[in-house]
Amino acid sequence: MTINYQYKNIQSPTKITLTDEQSAGHADHWSILTDDMSHDVPEWLQKMIEKAAMPKGLNNNVSAQDSCLLLSEDQPCHINQVLAMKNGKPECFINAYPCVDSPYGLNCKIERIIANDNSHDAVLRLRTADGSIIYAFDQLYTTNRHLYQRDTSYFVNFSAWAHEIKLSEQNEVIMVEDQEAIRYHRAFNDIVAANDGKVPDDLQEQIKEWKPETKEQMAPVEINLGHMCAYLFGDTLGQEDEAWCQGQVLGKQETVFNDKSIILFDVVVLREQDADPFVIRIGALNTPETASIKVHDYVQANVWLQAAIYKENQQSAAQQSKAS
After folding, report:
1. 244 forms bridges with which residues in the sheet?
2. Predicted pLDDT at 324
3. Pairwise CA distance, residues 45 & 88, whole Å
4. Which one of 78, 166, 188, 275 is at 20 to 30 Å from 247 when CA atoms are compared?
5. How far is CA 247 from the centre of its chain?
C-alpha cells in the first residue's frame, strides 16, 4: 500500500514580543467607562462570570481544559476576561478588557503580531486588499493565537471605544477638479443616500455603473476638510491601536454596558476609489455632546481600535482569496 503525504508549509505571521514593562495595560480603556475603576471593574468582572460564554474565534476546540480560557458575553458592549486554567478549573486571573461588537469589517492579511504573552494583549498589523495598513487590538488573541497564518486573508470585524468623539472642524475647504475624483465623490454620496445612509455590499459595482444625469453633477467639487475621511494609527510600539480618525456617521444607536448608557456610532473613516470602505462601530458614553451627534455628521475621534476574527465570518475572505 502506498501512502501519499502532502506537506504544506504553514507559517505564522511575524511576531514581536513585548515585556510587561513595554505593555500599556487597560487602565486608560476602563477610564473611558468609569471614574471609579477600583470599585466598578472588579464588580463588573464578578457580574459577567455569572453569564459568561466562551468565544471560539477561529478555534472550534475551545475547552475549559485549555491552559488559558477566554470568557466573554453576548452583548453589543461587553467584557472579555482571560483566566489561567488548571485541570479544568480557574487557577488565576490574567487580564480583562472592555469590547465593542461590530458587524463591519474588511478582508485583511495579518502582517505582524505585537504581543505580550503574559497578559494576552496583542496588536495586529493588518493589510487590506487595497494595501491600507490598519493596527487593531485583538479581542480574541487568547483563542486565535496559535491559528493565525501568514499570507492568509481573513475577514476582520472592526470596532472601537472612543476616548473622545466630536464634530469635525468645518472651516477649511479645497476645490477638487479631477473628473474621476468628482465622479467617485458624487456616486458614493448618491448611492449611500439611496440606501438609507448605509454602505451597500456591492458599493464598488454600483459606483462603476453610476452615470451623471446632469452636467452640474460633474462640476468641480468644493470639499470641506472637515468632511474628509482619515485614519492615523499610533506611533508607539504596542500602542498602534490608539488611533485618530475622521469620518462620516452612517448609523447611530443606543445600548447599555453595565448600567452605563452607550451610543454606538457607525463611522466610515476610509473610502477610497476601487476599495471597500473602512467602517468602524465606535462606542462612546452617552453624554450631551455625544448625543448631539447625528447621522450624516462628520466627526473626529481618538479611539482604541479593536479587531475580532471569527471562523463563521470567513466565507467572504475565502471567496476573495480564490478570486485573487
Report:
1. 232, 302
2. 38
3. 20
4. 78
5. 14
Model confidence over 289-324: pLDDT tens digits? 999 999 999 999 999 999 999 999 997 555 444 333
Q: How confident is the model at residue 266 (pLDDT cuts 50, 70, 90)?
A: very high
**Helix, strand, coil share of the chain (percent; to 5):** 20, 40, 40
What Cα–Cα distance (Å) separates residue 21 from each residue in 138, 179, 224?
19, 52, 43
Q: Give the CA-trace dihedral at 136, 138, 139, 144, to 10 degrees.
A: 150
**Which cell numbers hold the place of 76?**
453589543
What is the grid cell recorded at 181?
A: 475624483
pLDDT digits (tens, 9 = 90+) for 194-242: 988 888 889 989 999 999 999 889 998 887 788 889 999 999 999 999 9
**Residue 126 near residue 108, CB atoms below 8 Å:** yes
- Taking each continuous run of H as one helix and of E as one strand, the counts in the chain are 7, 15
Amino acid at 206: Q
Distance of CA 135 to the CA centre of its chain: 9
Distance CA 238, CA 220 (A): 42
Which H or E run contains 123? strand 121-128
* 191, containing H or E segment: helix 179-194
| Residue among 32, 26, 27, 28 at smallest CA distance from 260 | 32
Who's near 116: CB < 8 A, 6+ residues apart? Answer: 17, 18, 19, 20, 22, 23, 122, 238
Over residues 245-274, the mean pLDDT reads 94
Q: Is 101 in contact with 159 (CB distance < 8 Å)?
A: yes
Query: Any bridge partners for residue 306, and if so which?
Result: 137, 159
Judged against a pLDDT cut of 80, whether residue 120 lies above it is answered with yes
Q: Where are the domains of the chain?
A: 14-157, 164-306
Q: How confident is the model at residue 72 (pLDDT cuts 50, 70, 90)?
A: very high
Residue 31 to residue 163: CA distance in whole angstroms: 9
For residue 28, give the 3-state DSSP assignment. helix
